[in-house]
Amino acid sequence: MSQAQLEPVVAPRPRGAAAPEAGRLSSYERSLGRSRESLMRKDRPRVFTMFGHEWDLFPEVFAPVYSPSTQVAVDFLDLARPGTHDGGSFLEMGCGTGLVAAMAVFAGYDRVVASDINRMAVANAAANAERHGLGDRLRAVHSDLFAGLEPGERFDVVFWSSNYVLAPADYSYRSPHEQAYVDPGYRTHRRYLTEAPLRVTPTGSALLHFSDRGDVPALYRIADECGRELRLVDAHRVRECEYGDDMVEHLLFEIVPRTA
Ligand SMILES: C[S@@+](CC[C@H](N)C(=O)[O-])C[C@H]1O[C@@H](n2cnc3c(N)ncnc32)[C@H](O)[C@@H]1O
């Protein structure tokens, strides 16, 4: 993404009362219902086309075809057109199919890592890298956030399109796929907010793709507790697609260490 895009587009920190529809939109049970539905659908493809390319979709992996979020991520990062970036390194945390990571290679990043806690997603990202002949520039890694990466490995861009719906802290995942949808107690978000800025190069950006289906005030609160500042870089309001007509605000935050 260009430096110009990193300027905050909305300065004020979100506060105050939630919108009337927020309870329904942010319901973790509804998200888990979608998780189940997207796995069981008879029309779930094994291969899909997006951005003019074909992609493998493995079982148990987040399906970009049922939600606008993967496409929004590509737009946020300015990856839709080849050659828009002149080298550099890119980490896609929580890569799912690895589509965003592969698009980063097409866009010009020359060292890309696609990483996920879901082993099937790692295999899926590796398959898509192979399908597109990107083996020398895209590495798929199994990792719980940064734990499985090379110690001290840093990137110009660290990006996670997160499981932004808040689940109760005592919720236990019933399948690896559910990890794409909800985060119990925002424990993973808390770790990401702490660790992502430590994994960027001195001029790099640690980015989080969140939405107003998540608990935005809670995210700000946690960032504050972790000594982090959230800068809103971009926002796209989009229709939810397959699962209804709700409008959802997708948010791209840069995470920076708070200055005293
Ligand atoms: C909303 S999905 C996004 C998938 C993909 N980036 C896309 O846009 O299609 C969130 C992803 O984060 C992954 N994830 C959740 N917790 C994680 C963790 N602790 N470490 C790494 N990845 C995680 C999930 O497995 C899932 O693939």
Automatic annotation (TrEMBL):
Pfam families hit by this protein: Methyltransf_25
SUPFAM superfamilies assigned to the protein according to its UniProt record, in alphabetical order: S-adenosyl-L-methionine-dependent methyltransferases
Protein name: Methyltransferase
Keyword S-adenosyl-L-methionine carried by entry: yes
Domain Methyltransferase, first and last residues per copy: 91-163
GO CC, one annotated term: eRF1 methyltransferase complex
Region (Disordered): 1-26
Chain intervals with Low complexity compositional bias: 7-23
GO molecular function: protein methyltransferase activity; S-adenosylmethionine-dependent methyltransferase activity
BP GO terms, sorted: methylation
Alphabetical keyword list: Methyltransferase, S-adenosyl-L-methionine, Transferase
Keyword Methyltransferase: yes
InterPro entries xrefs: Euk-Arch_PrmC-MTase (IPR052190), Methyltransf_25 (IPR041698), SAM-dependent_MTases_sf (IPR029063)
